[in-house]
Every structure is written in structure tokens, then in C-alpha cells.
Write a structure and sequence with these properties.
Layout (H helix, E strand, L loop, with lengths): L7 H28 L1 H12 E6 L6 E2 L6 E13 L6 H15 L3 H11 L6 E7 L1 H12 L6 E10 L13 H4 L1 E2 L5 E2 L1 H5 L1 H5 L3 E6 L12 E4 L7 E3 L3 H18 L3 E7 L6 E7 L7 H7 L7 H4 L9 H11 L7 E4 L2 E4 L4 E4 L7 E4 H6 L3 H9 L5 H14 L28 H8 L8 H12 L3 E2 L5 E4 L2 E2 L6 E2 L6 H11 L3 H7 L5 E13 L4 E16 L7 E10 L15 H13 L21
Parallel strand pairs: 2-10
Antiparallel strand pairs: 1-8, 2-3, 3-4, 3-5, 6-7, 8-9, 10-18, 11-12, 11-23, 13-16, 14-15, 17-20, 18-19, 21-22, 22-23
Helix pairs in contact: 3-4, 3-5, 9-20, 12-15, 14-16
Length: 607
């Protein structure tokens, strides 16, 4: 008898196998239809549709009038080649024709030949081709004199206004530039990059078998946003004048750099901000190769020890504590011994002027007096240090001003709560050593001393696409009742014979403070004796008690004609540069607002 050929176990195995296979197929189908549905749909869509991205034109930048173009975008022509597949004969023909039309010298001709022989499908042969030359190339292409050559239009950022110095464009360090990738670099171009660039418009169209768009199938799938136009607070005429002034001082003083800022003390508007050396933003690639440090704006991005201009911060702290007033008499000693004889403080002339009023000591820039004011802010060193440090922070030092420019730094201010100050640290700080600040920070702090005690936020952009920008309200940092004495002190400083002839402007009220700081040579471990940092921060006004403008200037690493103790005269001194720039500013048409009418006091006669 034959055995049975069916088997229950075999049937179960078969069923399980069918279930596993079926489950796998169902799972795989679910994977394709559910998990990878969006991806596969997109792939199918891409096979039948063409996606096109069109960049919007970058917004223009204007001066405060809205009429002077500081930066704009234009169309430029570039020459490209489909080098791959060109025969040697075609390459030779293209080289001859292109060299003739483009006017290439032997070196450029060799470079052209190397590009055409690269066997790449896309090669850029020339950029920024002039319109006349582009027309000659179009004619040659139409007449089949060129093979595999085509012309493309590309956007180029241009800065049409010449600067105040050689090989520079107007406000270059303020504006920045746009690189080949279309990205803003430095200054306004970087800070407002998103607003200036806008966003591209994205189109889709069905494509034929050759990958070309089918007519009348084009759709906008992502509407773009046009680049916004910016109107600055900068006055183009004043900016040019200030650039010429800093250039002249840079040459005369053999300085490493000269910078200046003109600020509205009430609104924070920056009317001009210039430094030299500067650069040509239309040729930024050359600057990037030769000296990229010129891209840095020294008014906001480079710190330095300010020297005696910082004595006004010590005065502010003393006024607030009630330990001094303008007529407080203080003994100006020849030497001040500190830290139990371990440290000494001297005046710049190494002399003593005896007992003198505070306003005269500040006018004569006595280090000893400033140190005594700082040491006397409180009964002990710890509290005096905390008071002065708090005044610095409140006046905006140790932090960025918030100006709408890329690359601003906050400076360096040591906190006595973290590392206790010695007496020498407090004394040095009282006259601007041991701290590092920017010219913009100084301009802002001095504005608060004369505008009623408000710390304003400097800004560069006045309007975007025809709409005025919102000005952030300043914060009160000095009691208003202290401001008249601070303004009076600044006016008293420039009445000294040494300053008056180089600072005062006929018909205007002027005040300010000088600063001269030594420069430390880290390599030799000693102070330099041949170069110094010179500063002046002051105001100019059309009315006696109404300062109109703050002007801050800095001569970085200037070389005095005959450096000696107490006498460091430059060919163009900091306060003389202030006067030149302040005069340029107050005579700039339409810059300053109308003054309120002067109300004459009413007098009555008695009978």
C-alpha cells in the first residue's frame, strides 16, 4: 500500500510561506505608496515639469535726500562658452575672433585658449563686457563667426559716487559691498541683506521630450519679493567733505588711520561717518587681495584707549555723587603715589599746576585731578570702582550702540566685581586708559551730556521703500539738571588759548574735550614714544544753549612733529580737524532743522 503524499505540516509551511511573501509585498507596496509617496510624486513631477528661479533686482541705496544714488544694480554682459565638444578648428577660430573683439593682450589670449581647451560644458570667458563690445560679439555669433559662444546678462552691484580719497568710493566702509554670489558683505549691505535682496520668483512649466519649457504652461509657484530701496541718514555732500578732511589729516599726520563721525545728538541720525584709508567698492576683489583690513569700519569695529576724553565720564560720576562741582578746588600734585607706593600717576607734562578749580583742571587735562575725583567717589576703593564702572556701562561703553551696521563691537571694559581694581586701575580708568572704546560710542556718550541726558541709538537708515523707519526712543542716563554744567564745562575747555584758535567757529557755540593716549608696544613691553592716538569729541550749535551736532574725530597712531613730554603737536591736531568738519556740517544746506524762534523777555515799565 502506497503512503499518503499529503502532509499537514507541509501545508502549514506552505501557507506560512505564502503569508510571509504576501505580507512582504503588501508592506513594500505600503512603503512606496505611503512612506515615499511625496518623494515619488515629486520625482514624477520633476520628470514632466521645468522649475525656473528668477532673482529679483537688489534694492538701491540713496542718501538722505533720496536723490543721490550710493549703490545700485545694473545689468552687465558676460561671455560664456560650451567648450566641451569644440573641435580644435572651432577653438582656433573662437580664439582669433574673441581676441580681436575683446582686445586681448598675449597673456590674456593664452588664458582664453586654456579655458576653451578645458573640455568643460560651461566656461565663463569674460565679465562686465561693454555694450559696444557686446554688440560686436552678437553680430559675430549671428554671422556664425563664433562657435559654441553665447552672451548672458548678469546683475552687478555698482557704487557710482567717487570717494573723498584716491581709489575709493563714497562711504565704502559704511556701505560694504556685494560679492559674486550676491551676498552683502560688511556695513549696510550685510546688515540689510535680506531687505535689499528680497526673494526670488519661482516659475514652473511643463517640459517637452527635449527638456524645454512648453509655451503657455508657465505658472508662478512662489511669488518673489522685490528688493527694498533704502534711504540713509547720510548727507552725500557732507560725507564727501568729511572724507576729504580725514584724508588731508591722514597725509599730514602720517597716521595709520583717521576717522570722524557727525551725529545728531537728539535723534541719533548719523550725517557722516568716514575713515581713511578706504577702498573702491567697485573693485573690492583687489582690496581683498592687497589689504582686506580696509573693509573694517574703524568708527564701529576697532577699539582703542581714548585717553583724556574719558575724563568727562569721571566728571559725570562725580557730579552724580555730589562729590564735586565746577568750582571744587583740587590740588594738582606733580606725582600721585598709589597702592602703598607700588604705583605712580603723573600728568602728561610731569608738572603740577597747584590748587585749581575742577573746570580748569579738566580744561588743562590734569591726570592727577581726574584720578583724585575717581578715588573720591566713595569712602573706599571698592565702592568708588563700582560707581565709575556703572557710569561707563550706563553711558553705553562695553556694549554695542545698536547701530544698524554689520560688524559693530562693544569695546572692552573691566568689571571690578569680577576682578577687583587696584588704585592704579581706578586712576588709569579716570583718564581713559585700561578701557577700549569706539568713536561711535564716544559720540553717543557726549550726545547724552548735551541733549538733556538721553542716550540715543545711532542709526544709518532713515527710510525703507518710502516709509520712514521707527526711531527707538533713547533712555535717560544723566539727570537733566546736570546737563547745563556738563555743557558749560565742555565750552570752558575750548576757551583755553591753546585750543581756542584751532577749535572755535565764528558765530557758533562750540565745546568739547581732547584726548591723547599712549600706545603699548607688546613686542618690546613698553610704551611707544613716537606715535599716539589723538581724539576730540565736541559739539557745535547755532544757539548758546542748543548744541546742534556732535563731531567725534580720532587720529590713530599719529606722529607728532617733535614728540616731547607735555608737547605732542601734530600738523593737523584733533581739535583742528573737529573745527573743519564741524564747519562743513553746519554750512551744509538743508542739514540742520529750523531753530525755534527766540522769545524775547517781556519787560514792563513801572510808574
Amino acid at each position: 500500500m502506497l503512503g499518503r503524499t499529503d502532509s499537514r505540516r507541509r501545508l502549514i509551511v506552505l501557507v506560512l510561506l505564502l503569508i510571509l511573501v504576501g505580507g512582504g509585498l503588501v508592506s513594500r507596496l505600503a512603503w512606496w505608496q505611503l512612506v515615499r509617496h511625496d518623494e515619488l510624486s515629486a520625482m514624477a513631477h520633476d520628470q514632466t515639469h521645468l522649475r525656473m528661479v528668477v532673482e529679483n533686482q537688489r534694492g538701491a541705496i540713496y542718501d538722505r535726500s533720496g536723490t543721490v544714488v550710493l549703490a545700485t544694480t545694473v545689468d552687465r554682459v558676460r561671455v560664456v562658452a560650451a567648450a566641451k565638444g569644440l573641435s580644435p578648428a572651432d577653438q582656433s577660430t573662437d580664439i582669433e575672433v574673441l581676441a580681436g573683439i575683446l582686445g586681448l593682450d598675449p597673456v590674456a589670449r593664452v588664458a582664453l585658449a586654456e579655458r576653451l581647451q578645458s573640455d568643460r560644458p560651461y566656461v565663463i570667458l569674460a565679465r562686465d563686457v561693454a555694450s559696444e563690445t557686446a554688440e560686436q560679439l552678437r553680430t559675430a555669433i549671428r554671422d556664425n563667426q563664433l562657435v559654441g559662444i553665447s552672451l548672458e546678462v548678469e546683475s552687478a552691484r555698482v557704487y557710482p559716487q567717487a570717494g573723498g580719497g584716491p581709489k575709493s568710493t563714497l562711504a565704502a566702509q559704511l556701505l560694504g559691498f556685494v560679492n559674486r554670489d550676491g551676498d552683502g558683505q560688511y556695513g549696510i549691505e550685510q546688515f540689510y541683506d535680506d531687505r535689499l535682496a528680497g526673494s526670488p520668483t519661482v516659475y514652473e512649466a511643463e517640459k517637452d521630450a527635449n527638456g524645454r519649457a512648453i509655451a503657455d504652461t508657465e505658472l508662478i509657484v512662489q511669488p518673489g519679493v522685490p528688493g527694498a530701496d533704502l534711504r540713509l541718514t547720510i548727507d552725500a555732500g557732507l560725507q564727501l567733505a568729511v572724507e576729504q578732511e580725514v584724508l588731508a589729516a591722514w597725509i599730514a599726520d602720517h597716521a595709520a588711520n583717521v576717522s570722524a563721525v557727525v551725529l545728531d545728538p537728539y535723534t541719533g541720525e548719523v550725517y557722516a561717518s568716514a575713515s581713511y584709508p578706504s577702498y573702491d567698492a567697485n573693485d573690492y576683489r583687489t582690496t581683498a587681495t592687497e589689504d582686506p583690513s580696509r573693509f573694517i569700519d574703524p568708527t564701529i569695529s576697532r577699539v582703542y584707549e581714548p585717553g583724556s576724553v574719558f575724563k568727562m565720564l569721571t566728571v559725570v560720576a562725580g557730579f552724580e555723587q555730589g562729590t564735586i562741582d565746577l568750582n571744587t578746588k583740587i590740588d594738582d600734585e606733580k606725582v600721585l603715589v598709589l597702592d602703598d607706593g607700588k604705583a605712580l600717576i603723573r600728568n602728561s607734562d610731569h608738572k603740577s599746576m597747584g590748587t585749581m578749580k575742577l573746570q580748569d583742571a579738566i580744561a588743562n587735562s590734569r591726570n592727577i585731578v581726574a584720578a583724585k575725583v575717581a578715588l573720591g567717589l566713595a569712602p573706599n576703593l571698592h565702592d568708588s570702582s563700582a560707581i565709575l564702572h556703572e557710569a561707563w556701562l550706563r553711558m553705553g561703553f562695553g556694549q554695542p550702540t545698536g547701530i544698524d551696521l554689520a560688524g559693530e563691537v562693544g569695546g572692552l571694559v573691566r568689571d571690578p566685581a569680577i576682578s577687583s581694581w587696584r588704585e592704579i586701575d581706578l586712576a588709569n580708568g579716570s583718564f581713559g586708559q585700561g578701557v577700549a572704546v569706539t568713536p561711535m560710542q564716544l559720540a553717543r556718550a557726549f550726545a547724552a551730556m548735551v541733549n538733556g541726558g538721553t542716550l540715543v541709538e545711532p542709526h544709518i537708515v532713515a527710510g525703507i521703500d518710502g516709509h520712514d523707519t521707527q526711531i527707538e526712543p533713547g533712555r535717560q542716563v544723566i539727570a537733566p539738571e546736570l546737563v547745563p554744567d556738563l555743557t558749560s564745562l565742555l565750552k570752558h575747555v575750548v576757551q583755553l588759548p591753546n585750543y581756542a584758535s584751532g577749535t572755535l567757529v565764528d558765530g557758533f557755540t562750540v565745546g568739547g574735550k581732547t584726548g591723547t593716549a599712549q600706545i603699548w608696544d607688546s613686542a618690546k613691553g613698553q610704551w611707544r614714544g613716537d606715535i599716539f592716538n589723538f581724539s576730540f569729541v565736541g559739539f557745535i550749535g547755532r544757539q548758546r544753549n542748543h548744541p546742534d551736532l556732535i563731531v567725534a574725530v580720532q587720529i590713530h597712531e599719529g606722529r607728532p612733529k617733535i614728540p616731547k613730554i607735555g608737547v605732542l603737536n601734530l600738523p593737523v591736531r584733533s581739535f583742528e580737524l573737529f573745527r573743519r568738519i564741524a564747519t562743513d556740517a553746519v554750512y551744509t544746506p538743508g542739514l540742520l532743522p529750523e531753530l525755534p524762534p527766540v522769545v524775547e523777555p517781556v519787560t514792563t515799565s513801572s510808574r
